[in-house]
Structures are given as C-alpha cells and as structure tokens.
Amino acid sequence: MAVEKFPIEAGHIMMFARSIGDKNPIYYDEVYAKATEPGAIVPPPTFTMSSAQFDPDYFLRPKIGEPWFGSGKNPTGISQASGGSGGGAGRGLHAEQHFEYHLPVKAGDVLKAETKPGKKWEKEGRRGGKLIFSETITEYRNQNQELVVTARGIGVVTEKAPD
Amino acid sequence: MALKKSELKIGDVHEALLVEDLKRTQIVQYAGASGDYNPLHTDEIFATQVAGFPSVFAHGMLTMGMTGAMLTNFVGDGRLTHFGVRFTKQVFPGDTLKAKATVAEIHEKDGQPLVNFSVETLNQNGDIVVSGWATARIDE
C-alpha cells in the first residue's frame, strides 16, 4: 500500500471515534481540543489504518464498475472458480498490529504512507493446515517529511477456515 | 490528566468496559470509517455460506481501536509512544468486551518518564481476544 495523500480530516476522525465507541470530545470538539495538551483535534491511536480510504487500489473496498466478492443475488459476487485468497475471500486474517508514535498528528496534517514487506514465515495450525504469516511495515510521514507513525502489521493466511 | 510517576506502581490495574452486546451495526460503522469493507465483517451471507464462519465477526482493528480508547482515556491524549497487540480470538456480534492495562514497568528514556503496560481485552467468557502492550509518556 502506498498512499500519496492521507489528509487527516476532523470529520473523518469524528466518524472513526464514533465507530470505536470513544466519546472523548478531543475527537470532535475543536474548542475543547484547543484546551487539551495536544491543543487540537487529534486522531485516535489506531486511526492511521484508515489511510486505506485514500489508497486507490485498496482491495477491500468495492470499486465502481468492478466485480465485488460480497453477496448479492448469490452468496458471493465472484465465480467460485476465481475465488481464493487473491480476492481476500475469507482466508486472510489479521494476526498482529503494532504502532510506534514518533511525533504528534493533528487534524489538518497531510500524511504520506509507504509500505514495505517485512518477514515471512510458516507454522502448523492447531487445527491442522499450514499458517502462512507475513509482515508489512508502513511508515507515515507528515507534510514536513517527518516520520510520525510506524505501523507494523502481521497477516496470516490459513489453508482452511477454522472449525 | 496525565499520569504521574509518583502515583503509579508495578501491578496497578486499570479496567474499562469496551462494549456490551456488540451490534452488527457497530461493525458496519467501523467498516465505513476505516475503509475496510471485507464482507467477512459485514455480510452475514458471505461470512457463513462462502467463508464458513458461524457469523460475521469484528475487524481485529475494531477491537484494537476500542482497546486503544481504554488506554488514551487513561494515559491522556497524545501520550502513547507504542501500542501493539496480537489478535488471539475472534470477536462476534453479541460479545461483551472488557479491557485492562497492568503497569509492567516504569522507566526513563532521555529524561522522559515512561510506563509500560501489558494490555488484555477479554470477552464475556473470560477468553482473551486481544493481548499486547503499550508505552506512554508520564509526568514526574
């Protein structure tokens, strides 16, 4: 994932905070936020994941005019033959997620994200089947080219869905 | 609002209720906000009939996000320097989640006092759904 422009927008922060059930007014009330230590509306700690919204190629968002693997007339919108993990059709899961916060991020900042692959390893699953782990590291830089957040995610692909 | 080094000791526990009876609508809300529209989380028909799960389930990042709210509302805004978790069990609609942060270490880096917490989120059966650790800047 490479995201050229990830604008940190107050409205987006408000919607994100609502979705995680966080009532802290620093996520929506500018006047309140001014009087806090950060001095501005700031994003919640896991907010950088939503840079996916600004990734034109993000595969877990339906694209206009393209097939989508969720249900419609049938349980899946793609033919079974073309299924598999390539479409994210149910086999890939999130195993770990880590964030390092280097510098503050505030509403109004414009970040840029660059992702590089990390380690890759395999393990035998408890219920049988091979588990394939892979790591990705995403570095978020602000409009001054300063590194603000490093995100390290580990995904796991199973050979079969857990029982 | 920030925590003080003088008022923390190893083993101190902070707990918060994250969600009671998680609704599918909240999972949809998270999908919309985060941009992760994987139908495993929002499309019951796809999740059960195609992927073979008992129902849709929450994004790991929704559970991590709710767990993060427990942390920021405890350590103060803009105070975290690290937050990392493993997703150990799926979270399903109807689950009730509680999170706790336990003081594991109090230390200093370049004159800045820091606290490390071990972090756990548990469901109504006492199963750990998320486990990890976090570090926050604290005052003297």
Description:
The complex is a heterodimer of chains A (163) and B (140). Chain A is mostly beta strands and 163 residues long. Chain A has one domain (2-158): Hotdog Thioesterase (Thiol Ester Dehydrase, Chain A), CATH 3.10.129.10. Chain A is built from two helices and five strands; from the N terminus they run E-H-H-E-E-E-E. In chain A, strands 1-3-4-5-2 form a five-stranded antiparallel beta sheet, with no helix packed on it. Chain A starts with a strand and ends in a 5-residue tail after the last strand. The longest helix of chain B has 16 residues, at 60-75. Chain B is elongated and about 55 Å long. Chain B has 140 residues and is an alpha+beta fold. In chain B, strand 4 (112-122) and strand 5 (128-137) form a beta hairpin. Chain B has a single domain (5-137), classed as Roll (Thiol Ester Dehydrase, Chain A), CATH 3.10.129. Strand 2 of chain A pairs antiparallel with strand 2 of chain B.
* Main interface: chain pair and counts: A-B, 47 and 51 residues
Overall pLDDT score of chain A: 90
- Class by helix and strand content of chain A? mainly beta
**Quaternary class:** heterodimer
Looking at this structure, what is the CATH superfamily of chain B? Hotdog Thioesterase
SS field, number of helical segments of chain A? 2
The N- to C-terminal Cα distance of chain B equals 13 Å
The proportion of strand residues of chain B reads 35-45%
Tertiary shape of chain A:
globular
CATH superfamily of chain A: Hotdog Thioesterase
Query: CATH topology of chain B, what is it called?
Result: Thiol Ester Dehydrase, Chain A
Provide the low-confidence segments of chain A as ranges: 81-90
**Broad CATH class of chain B:** Alpha Beta
Strand segment count of chain A: 5
- Domains of chain B, number: 1
Largest sheet of chain B: 5 strands, antiparallel
Number of strands of chain B: 5
Label the overall shape of chain B: elongated
The CATH architecture assignment of chain A turns out to be Roll
